[in-house]
Amino acid sequence: MNPVHVSQRVIRLFFLPALLGAQCASSLAQPLPIDVLHWWTSAGERLAVEQLHTQLLLNGVRWKDVAIPGGGGMAAVKVLKSRVLMGDPPDTAQLIGATLKDWDDVGLVMPLTAVASRQQWAQTVFPTVLNLITYKGVVIAAPLGIHRINTLLYNRHVFVRLGLLPPTNWEEFAVVAQKLSGQGIKPLAWSDEAWQIATVFEAVLLGEVGPKRYRELIVNRKSSAWLSPDIDKALERLRWLRTISGEVPRERPWTESAREITSETAAMFIMGDWAKGELMAWGASPERDFGCVAVPGTRQMHLYSVDTLAMLRNARKRTATQEKLAEVVTTAQSQLAYNRIKGSVPARNDIDPASLDPCARDSWTAFAARDAALVPSLAHRMAADEATKDAVAQVLWRFLINPQMQVNEAKRRLALAVRSP
Ligand code: GAL
Predict the structure, then answer these.
(1) By CB distance 3.0 to 4.6 Å, which of 95, 119, 191, 265 could disulfide with 310?
(2) Which residues contact 359 (CB under 8 A, 6 or more apart)?
(3) Ligand 1 neighbourhood includes 286 CB (under 6 angstroms)
(4) Average of per-residue pLDDT across 382-408
(5) Is residue 241 part of a domain?
């Protein structure tokens, strides 16, 4: 284990109880447990959660972990549904994007407007994020951090050894890919899991059609928009990316692909920047061992997914503690500590970007820019509900695993899928 993590563990084990003891004597009795349902189970995600846990304990709130494995939250969402149906919602859940509104419509989500106004989120949280967590004029979630989906990670050692530069467009990407293949290194780590395919696709689509068209397709979801010829390129590119490694693709967790980057089996990986957090958790450094650039054609654009925690109504009625949790996780201190590990960037506009690693600095700066091209991720629930996201991901998956499916047929199916109820 990396020494930083060892020392973090030591601090937690030995010093935190002492610190807490001091606080307990003054203001806190027993830290109250709040069960939090989420899908952060990889090494980097676990460390990020532990960081939140630490910040909360210092403030008298105990994070009771309900972690459901499964990248992209497919399983966690099912568990949440069944707990709600059984009448036992957790106190807090990782509810993000459009799904927040769906759960609010059924009366599950607690308002956080009072916390937001006490903590001045209107001044400190990015307007795009605030907008995402506000529904019918009420704030309904606490923002944790902003992930950049259009991230291409590459192994710096491999690139230096072969004299390669990170590609900024698809022509450069093709040249780099060919050189890597020639040296027996997989150009791009790949998985056939539907949510991962959708993650790569939306980044490719953004590069291909630009932010304005992306919004038309993904945010407004006009069916007819999906039938035009500019979609062809994005679909063909997706097929090509899947095949350039020359091996039979299979479904596998995103962490396996990340592992290929550190072992130098593969040189590049297109994934949200939680993959950066993972590489860091394994001891790799974004300055020394790997780099991040925007997916070709998407420089200056930010395809975002914002992680948020919603406080849920249940029989335990721990409103004050739930509010406290929302307050603590959104302070500048917690946001910096958590996001540094998670791979994302603070949802706040008042931090110093110089304190961030180079990938995070790029992401935060692109997000904060006055004329920023910010677009929401469909694959990560920012732009549409669970059913629509799943329907689109299924079409893309079918299109890839069935080489007989024509591009026009895929477009026709996508045009229907984006209108899923
Ligand atoms: C995303 C989530 C991230 C990360 C990722 C991989 O949907 O926003 O925080 O956990 O899934 O599971």
Answers:
(1) 95
(2) 151, 273, 276, 286, 291, 292, 343
(3) no
(4) 97
(5) yes
